[in-house]
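Lay summary. Proteins are chains of building blocks that fold into shapes, and those shapes determine what they do. In this project we predict the shape from the chain. Here is one chain we studied, written as its sequence of building blocks.
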Amino acid sequence: MAALTTTVVPNTGLRIDNLFVAAAGGGDTCETGAGVELHVKNASGSSVTVTLAYPGKYDGDQTVSGRTFTVAATSGHSVIPVRDIYRDPATGRAAISYSSATSVTVAVIRGQVAG
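And here is the predicted shape, written in a compact code that computers can read:
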């Protein structure tokens, strides 16, 4: 798994097309929290499913499947919010997996928190 770096949007704005990196075949991890977004671009000829693992349990032992998102084929671009619900307490990060990482690029971007 690769640890994706989060880029914070400055007050002057941000160019993002140069921030994308190849998705790791074994999955990636990223920061979670308010305003954190996983941007996924898919250049392959087939749609790709992105899964954010849900590390929590209900009633002490009931597991819950991760949340899945479908990114359209050929130039599909999706923005996925990475809320704290996906934060693994052991790592402090969200675990991301892909049905295929071929021709998939990703970037993690966080807007500034209002204050």
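What the prediction tells us: The two ends are 34 Å apart (CA to CA).
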